[in-house]
Specification:
single chain, 109 residues, mainly beta, Ubiquitin-like (UB roll), five-stranded mixed β-sheet, 1 helix, 10 strands, globular
Length: 109
C-alpha cells in the first residue's frame, strides 16, 4: 500500500524505487514518498518509544502536527517521518525517548 495523495504534500508522483536502511535493514521505497509510507509498506508500524513510559508510537495524524512518527533520520533526531520525503540511501532509526543521536559504542535500547 502506498500513499498517492497526502494532505500536506499533495498528489505524489510515482517515483523511482530506491533503497533505504531502517534499523540496519535495507528496504525498498519510492523516492519522494513520505518515509512513514515506505515504512508502513514494509510492515514497520512502531517508529519511536516514549521517554517516560517507553510506549510504542507510530503514525497518528499523518500530517505533521503531532510527534508520534518521529524517528532519527541520517543522525538527526525528532524528524517527522509523515512529511519527510524518502531519498536514496537514507539511514533511519527507531527513536527512543528524546532521540539524542547515538554515538559509536552506545548501548542499543
Amino acid at each position: 500500500m502506498r500513499v498517492k495523495e497526502h494532505p500536506i504534500l499533495g498528489e505524489l508522483e510515482k517515483g523511482t524505487l530506491v533503497e533505504i536502511r531502517v534499523d540496519g535493514e535495507t528496504i525498498e521505497a519510492v523516492e519522494g514518498e513520505p518515509i512513514s509510507a515506505a515504512l508502513i509498506a514494509a510492515g514497520k508500524t512502531v517508529f519511536r518509544y516514549t521517554q517516560k513510559l517507553r510506549q510504542a508510537r507510530g503514525v497518528y495524524c499523518a500530517i505533521g502536527r503531532c510527534t508520534d512518527c518521529m524517528m532519527v533520520v541520517d543522525g538527526v533526531p525528532n524528524v517527522r517521518t509523515c512529511v519527510t520525503p524518502v531519498k536514496a540511501g537514507m539511514n533511519i532509526e527507531t527513536q527512543y525517548g528524546l532521540g539524542a543521536p547515538r554515538r559509536s559504542g552506545d548501548e542499543t535500547h
